[in-house]
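Repro:
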Amino acid sequence: MLNYVWAGLLFLGIAAALTTDIMDQTTDRYRNSVPLPVEIIFDQPYDSTKIETYSAQLIITEKNFNAHYRQAVTNIVKQKIKITSSPDQNKKSFYFEISGQSPIIWKEMAKASGEENDLTGTVSFSKMINATEALATITFEEVSFGKMKEVTNSAIDYAGTAVKIAIGLIGLMALWLGIMKIAEEAGLISIIAKGVRPITKFLFPDVPPDHPAIGAIIMNISANMLGLGNAATPFGLKAMEELDELNDQKGTATNAMCTFLAINTAGLTLIPASAIAIRAAAGSSDPAVIIGTSFFGAACATTVGILSAKILEKFPLKRNSIPDRLKNSWKGLLILLALIVGAFILIISGAGSTLFSMIGGADSFKSVIQIISTVAIPLIILSFTTFGVVKKVKIYEVFIEGAKEGFNIAVRIIPFLVAMLVAIGIFRAGGAMDFLVWIIDPITSLIGMPAEALPMAMMRPLSGSGSMGIMAEIISVHGPDSLIGILVSTIMGSTETTFYVIAVYFGAVNIRKTRHALAAGLLADIAGILGAVFIVNLLFG
């Protein structure tokens, strides 16, 4: 399935970019070679007989700008500009840097020309009003295939980003797998695994309760819930490596792997630290208001992710085997369903808010979790190494052995990261995501999701940094405490970057046939987004 998804991202991104460029060329969107009437005010007297570069201000009336670009700006366009004069040339060259106040179409032209913040062209003077003021026309350099150039740049940038991510993981992988190796040799992981055996037995029935994979899975989930992403990823990669040892069909994902990926892509976190930080930076009066809504959304995602993985792993099945499978698992599914309904009733009835107030409110809860998150990493390192010393483990030698494993895993995931991130970059830069948002907008509007929040929902499974940028942009426009601001913040805290997680985790053990892992992860994302829309509209709508 991942083969088709990857090919689809590439094809849709390039097709959308090429279609947009052809339409832009056909309609002459950027007005190539067409002079634009302007007024120029120089900072100093202009002398056309000298070779000199002058600073000036470009002024374009709304009428001229709108007629030229077939747009509808409502203010006079003003732009700082540099003009180079040469006596032997009728047309003078100019350039200017794009600023935040520049028209949107000029920003697009700057990107299409290959420079993010620079536009060049020529000036033809028609009348000198006085030594510092003139009427003229400007003609910009020709702009063509802007989207295709953006796709090319994005592919190169994302390829470099993938390598940077992998290199950044090397140190973390070496540290945490070294520490975990000490805990494993000392027997601490086995002790932890025994404590949560009822849960792991239900989630991973094919994995022996005392297998090292169980300990790594527990550490990964715990680190994710505390928001310790720098520790969660190494533990997760270690878990995948251990699960692969139980894999009879190398290169094909097992049921346990798919379930583990579904839990990870659900992104269940007690404190959505990144979303809270962005809200605080934007001046929110209550940045932590999304703690409860994010946990609700993430709980929906986790529940659906686990159920999807458990149901989808039954296929393909032999004839008449479905009733037997359902008969064996109906008790666990019934208990899980009862917990979901119970949690839903608590939230609707307001009992959840009462419980929060009994433990000191959201602020107290946040403070407790933040304290735990702060001391967790030093405490884990200290306790694991201390336990190793007590058990007479050669902690330094064992740490080095584990660190070597971490290094090898981090290097091994580079090709998988490059492949996935480049495809995502092309899909986004080509404009395919904008087209997809336009298609599904009529459907999502029926469930109370504003159109402004759709780009965030679409980007979240693809890219963490991309979704964070979209969230910050939406909040800057609508405000952090608006309904849309709270909604996109909740979506950020309720879901995870599914494609990135699958590429990294499966890449670590060379899994090429992902089976139902992607489907379960995407279903978890959809559930998390729908849960976020529901709870935010219920509480703040």
